[in-house]
Amino acid sequence: MREVQHFIAGAKVAGTSGRFGDIYNPNTGDVQAKVALATEGEMDAAVQAAANAFPAWAATNPQRRARVMFEFKRLLEANMDELAELLSSEHGKVVADSRGDVQRGIDVVEFACGIPHLQKGEYTEGAGPGIDVFSMRQPLGVVAGITPFNFPAMIPCWMSAVAIACGNTFILKPSEKDPSVPMRMAELFMEAGAPEGVLNCVNGDKVAVDAILDHPEIKAVSFVGSSDIAQYVYARGTANGKRVQAMGGAKNHGIILPDANMDQAVKDIVGAAYGSAGERCMALPVAVTVGKKTGDEFRERMVEAASNLRVGVSTDPDAHYGPVVSAAHKAKVENYIQMGVDEGAELVLDGRGLTMQGAENGYFIGPSLFDQVTPEMTTYKEEIFGPVLQIVRAETLEEAAALPSKHQYGNGCAIFTSNGRAAREFAAQVNVGMVGINVPIPVPVSYHTFGGWKRSAFGDTNQHGPEGVRFWTKIKTVTQRWPEGDIGDQAFIIPTMG
Ligand code: NAD
């Protein structure tokens, strides 16, 4: 059986722990490969490789670092088909969606190509007599990223492309559910001209994560995953003196006002709720309709749109979405559907019990739709992360807008309206990190920055964009003068420029 190893110091190395995780094919339920689960010692070997590579990489001028990124971008584009198919085979998202995942990663690599400009410091000439002040952004050293299963191409690039372009050397710990794309990308990065040890990929589970969090040589950790683990990573990493950003779960709301273009809202929300089987942290699993007429119309149109969705194996070019990632995740989503029924929501479409001819053991769930969901329900409060859309009815915009603001998660939200003033006010006031105005999935482009609020992110710096460059560098400020002659009593007083 195929074995996914580690990638350390520029080469694939077999795992030594004797522990392996199963990589499933979500279309069939078969185990298709094994992934090595690292020991603390293997993590340490990767850290040593990264530490050895750091001085020379940090001293490589930013234009040369950018050239590696340009070549990496070209190789990712040239290998798009292979990467997308590999991604689909382990994750279960349809191939067109996997191409989007890879493309979003490429976008961040493209952003990182601008590092000579992005990492430039600041300079003040003549801050005092004969005195100049300048600041520079220096890399931190060996840094690490820990990523979730749901975007195995994009999220590793969010972290590693920016960190490495800044002159750091990197340890990636991908999700053990679909590690093959990150491993292949590490190989391509070497092929692009990166020196060995600059990007290492260590596969594993909690043992590997804890080894990262406790390793004294690792200066910063970026994490994306579920909120409880994000909080744990943040607490343990910062307690060990590391810089940590830890993105967590989400429950994004789409608010539909009576003046919304209903055609657009339904088309957008059906894709945002059910696309990728709902396994996106920027999915839109809650639709808040304002007024009875809007709610009734939205429900009727959504029933039609969702009923027409085609669920299929990830290689089916006509499928809108494929299976969820694992049997355990399928059971979890189906339990939430039952819980919704038990707590009194109206189950309008039930996606449980869907079997696919020829793929009877795949992890498929049909589109599910609840109406009459209320904020007290557990199924509203928690993240389901499956193809389940919940309609919450509100009477006014104020009542609707309060819902995402009060929710424990604050990743993204969207408003559908033709009223510019209402949209502007909503965007300014809502207590959430990313907002779409007639845009269902407001994932910012790579040169802006990605991050949620509340339990959707721990730490205060976002992914990619200028915030990413700040996270992966430390600033040093130099005040210089070249005095002539005696500097006199001024040496004894606190210097002022007045
Ligand atoms: P997860 O939290 O189970 O796993 C994420 C990473 O943490 C993996 O690398 C995993 O190996 C590791 N991990 C798992 N359990 C651990 C433990 N007990 N101790 C230490 N490490 C552990 O998340 P997932 O299921 O892979 O991904 C889905 C979650 O990620 C969803 O909650 C989703 O909303 C979230 N997500 C958030 C964002 C964002 O930017 N906010 C983006 C994508 C996904």
Q: What can you tell me about this protein's structure?
A:
With 498 residues, the protein is an alpha/beta fold. It folds into 2 domains: 2-248 and 456-478, Aldehyde Dehydrogenase, Chain A, domain 1 (3-Layer(aba) Sandwich); 253-437, 3-Layer(aba) Sandwich (Aldehyde Dehydrogenase, Chain A, domain 2). Helix content is 39%, strand content 22%. It has 16 helices and 23 strands. The protein has helices spanning 40-59, 62-78, 80-91, 95-112, 115-118, 154-165, 180-191, 206-214, 227-239, 262-274, 292-307, 327-342, 378-381, 397-406, 420-429, 465-471; strands at 2-4, 6-8, 11-13, 20-25, 30-36, 122-128, 131-139, 142-146, 169-173, 199-201, 218-224, 243-247, 253-256, 286-290, 346-349, 368-371, 388-394, 409-410, 412-416, 434-437, 453-454, 457-458, 473-481. The strands form 6 sheets. It has a 7-stranded mixed sheet, sandwiched between helices. It has a 6-stranded mixed sheet with strand order 10-9-8-11-12-22, sandwiched between helices. Helix 2 (62-78) runs antiparallel to helix 4 and helix 3 (80-91) crosses helix 4. The longest helix has 20 residues, at 40-59. The radius of gyration is 25 Å and the shape is globular. The termini are far apart. The protein binds nicotinamide-adenine-dinucleotide. Nicotinamide-adenine-dinucleotide (NAD) is lined by residues 146-151, 173, 175-176, 205-206, 209, 224-226, 229, 247-250, 281, 383, 385, 411, 452, 456. Nicotinamide-adenine-dinucleotide (NAD) binds next to helix 8.
